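Archive transcription. Copying these from loose printouts into the bound notebook so they stop getting lost. Printout 1 of 2:
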Amino acid sequence: MKTLRCQMNGSHLFISLSLIHASKSASNCNLFFFFLIELNETEVEDQTAKVTVEEQMLITTINSMENDLVSAKSDTKLLREEAEKVNKGNGQICAQISAKQRKIASLESDSSTLNQTMELMQQERVSSSKKIAEKRTGSNLTGLEK
């Protein structure tokens, strides 16, 4: 009677064999052991193939993540540069707005000064017109008296 006991522990296969009948021929035993060795090698090859596939998947995942990281760093750099350009543009726009506000204030001051000057000139014209009118009336009165 033969007893075969197999135990799988992680990636290792443990096989224990008990031969009770020694009357069996040696060739049958050799064939049986050869089968067990082949079975063990096949399992090791299968396990190796699985590990290799897993390793390749992990390598592919790592490479993909590294590429994503490089891409993210590149995108971040581009966004920082763009933000810097926008901030610089905003600074230039603010400077232009400030310059235009100063120009508007200066023009408003000039306009106010010109309005006051025009009012004074109109008052002077009215005053001069009155004086001329008074002189005319005064000369007309003087001319009538002669």
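Printout 2 of 2:
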Amino acid sequence: MRMNVRKKLMIGFISVIMLLAIISSTSYFQYDSLNKNFTEAIDESLQKNKLVSAMQEAVLSEQIALRGFIIGADESNITRFNESHDDFAKSTKEFLNLKIDEKAEKIIKDLIEVEAQYREVAFEAIEYKN
């Protein structure tokens, strides 16, 4: 079978188009995979930041409630203190359920221990105030 110039050009053109389609589809799927991975990483990071902010807010709220009770002897501050502790416990539990490395897990557990110590001192101050 003899191939003339027209057939050779047509085969060359079709092969270039097929290679272009293969390269384009591979690039698209790689881009989609990369986009998905980055989106998951950013969402996880945002979730961690949100929980850390919630923990910080809960601890600050505990301090404000304790100070309010000590200064004003208002019993509603004790309720606020306990609610803030519950918020802190909820946030730390959610954080520990996320995918974190051992170092972060140790830091959170140390934070929980320090908060528990603070809570003991706070109850001693509340008993002393009563």
